[in-house]
Design a protein that fits this description.
heterodimer, A: two-stranded antiparallel ribbon, globular, B: alpha+beta, 4-stranded antiparallel beta sheet
């Protein structure tokens, strides 16, 4: 009995000392298992958007002589951009530049090869969940490495989106070199502007929850520039060339929709109410946009088409991306309906009028949808979600900031893409030869055929 | 013995199939084809309406005994007809010889199932 009392007293004493220690000094920040678990799932979801989501969506839309070429383009971008990302991409986009004048525009090389980043380091980037550190600053709740890999998947899918513009007529070597350079010189800086703590658009207060500006406007503008500079496909007669496998298009659009839950609901970097709201508005906007496109098809062209509803869903997902952390259900519905109305008009009437050959409407859906989403974020952001108000809630300034961010991205991406295109075209050549294009890029670039007659 | 090859609208395939059954045709093969030429047809892709030279049709192929030729031709002509441009075409070929692999019989007998006919 006496022994027990002693043990008890010792325990009590120990408890008291630890309790007082906790109150006197700051808690050591630690990894939150719930947030981290969700982020790891979200990372996998965003990879699912590229392969096989986008690969199937684009692969189904091209002719069957080019389907493998599209698959290969997406697949190799996943590989090469991931490597680029850990070598310099992440550091350029998210680290702090030692040169003061460059700080707002591009990161430094401190984190090249993920140097100086340990497995238990916490993410310096956070949205809704954060914790105080010993030195009084604030830090996120997920591992830094989880943040890096989440951003890696974004870096991968952005150049892959541009494929839709130059599909069916680009030579593979030129494409690969162009895409890697584009990632380094266009994507990384724009990501730095908008998402890094030093970025000039971030400091200006531009709202881009999951990449409407960085991913979709950026890729969409690069898409129209490359489509125009590369010229039309040899068989382009001023109208879309019908999809070779619409079942792929549906599978691709479906996987994009699922993956987008990781893309948007993961962008809060935490498993909380904000993530749930982001998932909800993402789903509602996609549904509203898909429905709107199907009804437009039905009323204007007699029948609701499957390619149409798939395109509508993707347009809705694009438009809700920047807004997912700032709008509620009403905003999601407005964004979903508006984006389909405008993108349908762009793809069905404006594109044929202007005569450029954006093979799979990378600009018509991602560029235009991204711009609409970014503008509507400035209009519809509601203080009920996060502490940001749009013009509809009395903050006209936000709309102005959004327009500056959109304009800056269009200018930078447009000019930068044009310069990169000229350089790569001059040195390596970008356009496939007329004969290669006629035979198909599967056979001429890869020596493989998608649909064979062998057992 | 003749071979009939008919290019028909996909939308009329069910009608043609029923008409062939009604005419007593036991077996035929078919496949989807794409034609390309001067004529065009309206297509819709992502809201864009345009005329396309690539035209989707179905090819039906039947080998018949001479006694069944007329009624087969009539069955197809009637069932595949809409009166609009693009109803399709029908070609008749001579068949030199037919063999049934299982029984090794040849000639018109190889074209229909005697055992089945006897049972009915």
């Amino acid at each position: 009995m006496k022994k027990n009392i002693i043990t008890l007293t010792a325990l009590l004493a120990l408890f008291c000392t630890t309790a007082s220690a906790q109150t006197s000094t700051a808690v050591t920040p630690k990894i939150d298992s719930g947030d981290t678990a969700w982020m790891i799932v979200a990372i996998a979801f965003v990879l699912l958007m590229s392969i096989p989501g986008l690969a199937l969506f684009y692969g189904g839309l091209v002719r069957r002589k080019n389907v493998l070429n599209v698959f290969m383009q997406v697949f190799i971008l996943v590989a090469v951009i991931s490597v680029e990302w850990i070598i310099i991409g992440y550091s350029n986009a998210f680290s702090s530049n030692p040169i003061e004048a460059l700080k707002p525009y591009i990161g430094g090389f401190d984190w090249a090869f993920l140097n100086n980043i340990g497995i238990n380091d916490l993410s310096p980037y956070f949205i809704s969940h954060s914790q105080p550190t010993a030195d009084g600053s604030t830090i996120g709740t997920i591992p830094h490495i989880a943040f890096i890999m989440f951003q890696c998947m974004f870096a991968v899918i952005t150049p892959a989106l541009i494929i839709g513009a130059f599909a069916e007529r680009i030579n593979f070597k030129g494409f690969l070199i162009f895409s890697v350079l584009w990632s380094i010189f266009i994507y990384n800086p724009v990501a730095h502007w908008v998402w890094s703590g030093d970025g000039w658009l971030f400091k200006l207060g531009a709202l881009d929850f999951a990449g409407g500006t960085v991913v979709h406007i950026n890729a969409g503008v690069a898409a129209i520039v490359t489509a125009i500079m590369l010229g039309k496909r040899r068989d382009y007669k001023g109208h879309a060339i019908p999809a070779h496998n619409i079942t792929y298009v549906v599978m691709g659009a479906g996987l994009l929709w699922v993956g987008w839950f990781g893309f948007n609901a993961g962008s809060g970097l935490a498993a909380d109410g904000l993530a749930a709201n982001a998932l909800m508005v993402t789903h509602i906007a996609a549904a509203a946009a898909a429905l709107t496109w199907a009804l437009l098809d039905w009323f204007l062209d007699k029948r609701p088409t499957i390619v149409g509803i798939s395109t509508g869903a993707v347009a809705g997902l694009v438009a809700i991306t920047p807004a997912a952390g700032f709008v509620g259900v009403a905003g999601a519905l407005i964004i979903g309906v508006t984006v389909s109305l405008i993108c349908f008009f762009m793809v069905a009437y404006v594109k044929p009028k202007l005569g450029y050959d954006d093979s799979l409407d990378a600009f018509g859906v991602h560029g235009v949808g991204g711009i609409i989403g970014a503008v509507l974020t400035g209009l519809l952001a509601t203080p009920a979600i996060q502490a940001y108000s749009g013009a509809a809630y009395g903050n006209l300034h936000q709309l102005w900031v959004q327009i500056i961010a959109i304009g800056a991205t269009i200018l930078f991406s447009g000019l930068g893409t044009a310069i990169l295109f000229l350089v790569v075209d001059k040195i390596f050549g970008l356009r496939a030869s007329d004969k290669q294009e006629a035979i198909g890029l599967d056979e001429t670039q890869h020596g493989e055929t998608a649909y064979t007659n062998f057992d | 013995m003749k071979k009939i090859e008919a290019i028909i609208r996909k939308s009329k395939f069910e009608d043609v199939k029923q008409a062939l059954y009604n005419a007593g045709i036991e077996w035929f093969s078919y496949w989807d084809i794409t034609g390309l030429g001067k004529s065009t047809e309206e297509q819709v892709v992502r809201g864009q309406v345009f005329k396309s030279g690539y035209i989707q049709r179905r090819m039906v192929s039947i080998v018949v005994r001479d006694i069944n030729l007329e009624k087969t031709i009539t069955a197809i002509l009637d069932s595949a007809w809409t009166g609009e441009t693009g109803d399709g075409k029908l070609f008749i070929y001579d068949i030199e010889e037919t063999y049934r692999i299982r029984t090794k019989e040849s000639g018109p007998e190889a074209l229909y199932n005697k055992e089945e006919s006897a049972k009915n």
